[in-house]
């Protein structure tokens, strides 16, 4: 979404007009859901977290500084919502049936069924390794690798100094590799 | 890990967060250290596999917008209902109080109305206290 359009929509939402919130919700929903699924581990809890995050975002829009980008601010709220839900008794990171969840990539199919099967198995292992590492590691990996945020944006979302992002990523990647090693997966393959 | 390339530098190099001159220094270190090359290869491989995890929830059918919309517009509805009900009740009470009805009738009707309101308030208060002390209130049924 264009920053100017986004700012205009937020300005109208701040004035209390909920109609202008819909384009924002629809624009951030896919990425938000990806982050929520990766943090919660299942669709149902992810949708609950996403819905609550959008409501909290609307309720706190009056505090939002229009000079700043909306995306990192929203993801910060979503991330906190996921963490709150994981901390409470309402949700627990749990891996669902992976066959339904993992996207079948066209490139895999083009390289033959065996290659596609190998890639699918690798992704399944990686997903299981994600379950083994803590929420703190998982969230920073998701923000970097799945959402492609820059370090300064990750720092804003996680409310940490920018200089800490690289160190946190290093530890998260190490934790992921250790989890894979525990599962008898060798890196690099 | 190389003596001159810290773990943080390696991450910044891997994620393209380094200035070109800094990258040049890391490139030189990489050329001289097989240990560093191996470390980087591991992280590259992890990064690439992780990025392939760009799943989309298969059972995701409908947007959350309808639910969000219900929740963000609901408070407005409640406020309007409360204002309307308050206004009508006050107007009704005023009409009743200023009418030429027998004072005893006014007193009896007023007592009934106040009694109902007090009972309603006490039931709401009890429910609220019960809910606050409920150890299972966060359990999803």
Major β-sheet profile of chain B: none
User: What is the top-level CATH class of the domain at 1-94 in chain A?
Assistant: Mainly Alpha
CATH superfamily of the domain at 1-94 in chain A: RNA polymerase sigma factor, region 2, helix turn helix motif
Count of structural domains of chain B: 3
Separate helix tally of chain A? 10
SSE class of chain A? mainly alpha
Please give the number of β-strands of chain A.
Answer: 0
Largest interface: A-B, 50 and 39 residues
SSE ordering of chain A: HHHHHHHHHH
Radius of gyration of chain B, in angstroms, nearest whole number: 35 Å
Estimate percent helicity of chain A. over 70%
CATH topology title of the domain at 1-94 in chain A: Rna Polymerase Sigma Factor, Chain: A
Uncertain residue segments of chain B = none
Calculate Rg of chain A over CA atoms: 18 Å
Helix/sheet category of chain B: mainly alpha
Shape of chain A: elongated
Strands of chain B, count = 0
Largest sheet of chain A: none
What's the multimeric state?
heterodimer
State the helical fraction of chain B: over 70%
